[in-house]
């Protein structure tokens, strides 16, 4: 795809908390970025769900989705992803049915399988019991609430309705960093979003499996791929390379099992990581798009030629909020040139 004018751009925002900042600051920055993104022509604005992570303020994503939708007018707002294994399908249907009622035709429900945290915190959130349904069964139940007329007990004596929610047909997406969700999304005829911003090693295989297994549905008549990817753009190449070191440091700390707030950029990462850690971080981030406008355009074209993605969801974690805004502005301008 050498002509980018028809490419759809979207935003994936984990509401990053920076060193010296606060969750309140991060959430206010989220509202500011969403308003700018709408002005610059972005299609969607999704919030990531994470728990017990000191560097992310997006844990209660449905609440943030509603707030973002309230300060924008046309932007589609959604979850990237709502982690279905953490909640009952019934409660998710009610929450997103409520959002859809307030903001008709503007809400997306992206679903993921991962817990979005460490094992101990996941158990605290889930309070899981033996014999609970797996992801595909939860998805089937959730779809019945939003697209059908509820669910019926095995003895047929009681029907459960999600109100609000029933009949709203909130668009469901499956998100994934591997092949399970790719295959399931294809088989069910759902749109698929791949987490290329932290798991690019599985990208081409997952997209191939999704397209190969795709079956036409009432929702889609052909596959639809949205690719989440890190984008760090600046007016100068050297500045972009410096800004991305905040993201490198984030993943370095995750590699060490010590998630932390987003740190200021540095001039030289070699003072912070060893060769093993550098390789581990680079394996997670090698699909990142980093540079000035000209370089970003070339990298974007190359990525699209390789993946044939229908939409790009930019994940941009930069320490300085104004620099983060500028990165999204540059990316938006790139596809207009």
Give me the secondary-structure topology.
Elements: E1 8-13, H1 23-39, E2 44-47, H2 61-70, E3 76-83, H3 89-102, E4 107-112, H4 119-126, H5 135-147, E5 151-152, E6 159-160, E7 172-176, H6 180-188, E8 192-195, H7 203-213, E9 225-233, H8 237-243, H9 245-255, H10 275-285, E10 289-291, H11 293-307, E11 311-315, H12 321-334
Parallel strand pairs: 1-2, 1-11, 2-3, 3-4, 4-7, 7-8, 8-9, 9-10, 9-11
Antiparallel strand pairs: 5-6
Helix pairs in contact: 1-12, 3-5, 6-7, 9-10, 11-12
Please explain how this structure is put together.
With 337 residues, the protein is of the alpha/beta class. Helix content is 42%, strand content 16%. It contains twelve helices and eleven strands. The chain has helices spanning 23-39, 61-70, 89-102, 119-126, 135-147, 180-188, 203-213, 237-243, 245-255, 275-285, 293-307, 321-334, and strands at 8-13, 44-47, 76-83, 107-112, 151-152, 159-160, 172-176, 192-195, 225-233, 289-291, 311-315. The strands form two sheets. Strands 1-2-3-4-7-8-9-11 form an eight-stranded parallel β-barrel, surrounded by seven helices. Strands 5-6 form a two-stranded antiparallel ribbon. Helix 3 (89-102) links the parallel strand 3 (76-83) and strand 4. It is globular.
Provide a short characterization of the protein structure.
The protein has 337 residues and is of the alpha/beta class. It is 42% helix and 16% strand.
């Amino acid at each position: 795809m050498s002509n980018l004018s028809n490419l759809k751009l979207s935003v994936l925002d984990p509401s990053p908390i920076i060193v010296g900042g606060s969750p309140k600051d991060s959430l206010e920055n989220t509202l500011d970025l969403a308003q700018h993104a709408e002005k610059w022509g972005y299609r969607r604005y999704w919030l990531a769900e994470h728990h017990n992570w000191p560097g992310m303020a997006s844990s209660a994503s449905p609440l943030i989705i509603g707030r973002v939708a309230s300060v924008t007018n046309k932007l589609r707002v959604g979850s990237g992803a709502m982690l279905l294994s953490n909640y009952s399908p019934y409660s998710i249907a009610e929450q997103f049915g409520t959002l859809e009622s307030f903001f008709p035709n503007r809400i997306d429900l992206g679903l993921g399988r991962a817990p979005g945290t460490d094992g101990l915190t996941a158990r605290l959130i889930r309070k899981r019991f033996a014999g609970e349904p797996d992801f595909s069964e939860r998805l089937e139940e959730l779809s019945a609430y939003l697209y059908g007329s509820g669910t019926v007990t095995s003895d047929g004596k009681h029907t459960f309705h999600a109100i609000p929610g029933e009949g709203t047909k909130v668009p469901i997406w499956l998100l994934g960093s591997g092949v399970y969700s790719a295959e399931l999304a294809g088989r069910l005829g759902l749109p698929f979003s791949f987490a290329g911003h932290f798991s690019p090693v599985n990208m081409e295989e997952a997209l191939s499996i999704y397209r190969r297994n795709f079956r036409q549905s009432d929702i889609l008549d052909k596959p639809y791929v949205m690719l989440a990817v890190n984008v760090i753009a600046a007016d100068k190449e050297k500045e972009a390379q410096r800004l991305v070191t905040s993201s490198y440091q984030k993943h370095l700390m995750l590699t060490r099992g010590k998630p932390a707030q987003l740190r200021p950029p540095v001039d030289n990462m070699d003072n912070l990581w060893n060769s093993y850690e550098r390789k581990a971080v680079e394996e997670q981030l090698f699909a990142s798009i980093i540079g000035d406008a000209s370089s970003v355009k070339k990298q974007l074209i190359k990525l699209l030629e390789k993946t044939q993605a229908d939409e790009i969801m930019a994940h941009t974690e930069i320490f300085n909020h104004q620099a983060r805004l500028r990165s999204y502005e540059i990316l938006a301008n790139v596809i207009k040139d």
